[in-house]
Each structure stands twice: as structure tokens, then as C-alpha cells.
Q: What sequence folds into this?
């Protein structure tokens, strides 16, 4: 539930940080929380929105530090480092979406997700993704956006997956560089342990490789799929993390 409360230990586990790091975040950032009778608690829905926005804006060193922690936090879920082979299939990719507006992109991505057969409540998914975009665009510099729900809810999906859309025309999606967007990812996670990790992984791939230009040039969905798998392996091969990294998701 979006109004589920988490104590310090549960919130730290969900964010893939230590309790000490979370306490530092409380001192140095505007992380949403409440004080109930002297006890710090977090509303899961508010924490989701805050964390996802932070991850999207992390510079390379901080993203690498956070990704390292989120990888460790999901070891029990994945037997190997790569996520995309488990979350993405070539038929989850639409290489020629006819969307013409931000609203129609979101609608068409949700329809693509529904076509996987893994979405239990498409209307609820659409409302949550639209609500997340209303908070702040998930567009990134360079022509892509990584959409996701405003808050994670396991009841929306039968399994975790990602869908990818590439539009035939440019979409003004609110990217911070002011340029149009062509590539759209929609993260749909049934397992709350990998929700933020999947977001961090996609951001890491984009930062460490030239995958965006390769995806824009790819002739079909099968090539897009192959390029994404290769880009993930390239990003994972470069696992240099900063010494004494600062608190993640800050």
C-alpha cells in the first residue's frame, strides 16, 4: 500500500542503504518522513517518489556507489549480475510507436505492458505512471525517459518486467536538457526488492555506454534487444566504484 509505514530499518533495507546512511540522509536532505511520538517513520509511497527522482539525477560516481549497494541488496533475487535477460524480451519492445504527445506515449507504453499478459490492473498502472510524471518528468538528457509508477505496488503485476518503446517522431517529454525524447522504458516490478535497483541499472547503462545512439539506429526490436543486453554487459564490466563513496541516493 502507498500509505504503508516503514521504520528506519525497513526504509534502509528498501532503499538499499545502511541505517547509518539513512540517518545521514535525514540530516542532509529533504527525504520525506514523519515523527510520530519521537519515532521516525516513512510513508512508502512518498519514499518511492523521492528515491526514484534522486536516482534519475545522480551523477556518475554517486550512481555507481548506489548501484553497487542495490546490487548487493538483490543478490537473493538474481543468480547473476545481469537483470535484462530476466526482465526484458524482444516482444516487449515496440520499435515504431506512433505516439505524438507525452500523454499518448504513457498510454501506449501501458498498452504494451498490458500486452505482456503480466499486468493485473492496467487502469491503475496508467494512473500511477501519469501521477509519477506529474511530479517530475522521468526524461533524461540524450533522448530517453525511464518511466515507472509513482509508488511500487506488487498487486499490479504477475511478474517483474520492462517494456521499451521507440517513437517515430520526437516527443517533448520534459527532459532537463530541453531536447526531445525518442526512447521510453517502463519499469514494472512485482518484487519490491528490485524496483529501485532496476531503475539504477538502466541509468548506469545509459551513463556508461553509447546505447542510446545504438538504439536509435537499430532497425528492429530484435536488434534493440541485443543492443541492450550487450550494453548491460559492457556497463557491468566497468565496475570501478569511487573510494569512500558519499551517502547514496543523495
A:
Amino acid at each position: 500500500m502507498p500509505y504503508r509505514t516503514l521504520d528506519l530499518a525497513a526504509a534502509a533495507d528498501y532503499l538499499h542503504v545502511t541505517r547509518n546512511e539513512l540517518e545521514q540522509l535525514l540530516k542532509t536532505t529533504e527525504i520525506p518522513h514523519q515523527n510520530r511520538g519521537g519515532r521516525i517513520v516513512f510513508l512508502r509511497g512518498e519514499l518511492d517518489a523521492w528515491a526514484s527522482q534522486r536516482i534519475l539525477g545522480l551523477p556518475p560516481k554517486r550512481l555507481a556507489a548506489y548501484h553497487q549497494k542495490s546490487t548487493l541488496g538483490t543478490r537473493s533475487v538474481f543468480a547473476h549480475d545481469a537483470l535484462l535477460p530476466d526482465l526484458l524480451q524482444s516482444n516487449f519492445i515496440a520499435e515504431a510507436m506512433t505516439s505524438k504527445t507525452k500523454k499518448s506515449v504513457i498510454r501506449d507504453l501501458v498498452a504494451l505492458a498490458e500486452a505482456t499478459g503480466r499486468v493485473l490492473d492496467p487502469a491503475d498502472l496508467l494512473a500511477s505512471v501519469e501521477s509519477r510524471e506529474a511530479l517530475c518528468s522521468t526524461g533524461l538528457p540524450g533522448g530517453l525517459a525511464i518511466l515507472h509508477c509513482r509508488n511500487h505496488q506488487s498487486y499490479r503485476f504477475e511478474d517483474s518486467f520492462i517494456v521499451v518503446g521507440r517513437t517515430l517522431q520526437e516527443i517533448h517529454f520534459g527532459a532537463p536538457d530541453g531536447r526531445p525524447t525518442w526512447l521510453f522504458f517502463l519499469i514494472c516490478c512485482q518484487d519490491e526488492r528490485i524496483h529501485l535497483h532496476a531503475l539504477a541499472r538502466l541509468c548506469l547503462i545509459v551513463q556508461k555506454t553509447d546505447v542510446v545512439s545504438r538504439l536509435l539506429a537499430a532497425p528492429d526490436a530484435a536488434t534493440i534487444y541485443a543492443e541492450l543486453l550487450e550494453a548491460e554487459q559492457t556497463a557491468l564490466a566497468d565496475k570501478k566504484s569511487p573510494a569512500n563513496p558519499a551517502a547514496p541516493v543523495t
Q: What stands out?
A: The chain is about 45% helix and 15% strand. Confidence is low (pLDDT under 50) at residues 241-248. Residues 221-237 form the longest helix (17 residues). The chain has one domain: 1-250.
